[in-house]
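User: Fold this; tokens only.

Assistant: Input:
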Amino acid sequence: QVQLEESGGGLVQAGGSLRLSCAASGSIFSINTMGWYRQGPGNQRELVATFTSSGSTNYADSVKGRFTISRDNGKNTIYLQMNSLKPEDAAVYYCNLAFLTPWGQRAVYWGQGTQVTVSI
């Protein structure tokens, strides 16, 4: 079993900052990708920022220059620093982890989500 524990969401004024954390624990094999997605009211879940299988980062155009994803490999933890938040950034943010098991299956896990609310 794999657990993803998210923290750091909350209410912030437009222009403010928040930092999300996601700690992975359990039977984790070589991590393939790990990152953040979000889902706003009435919207589909969308990629925000992620570490790719090559270790590079990938950001949604809407957050480039404002959000930064980082990680602590020793703790299997990733972070999302969100600056200059806009009302349209309000959503439930989900941590995502994917890896290949030793028997060749792709395992994908999601966190429970953390709410980010941005007030005008």
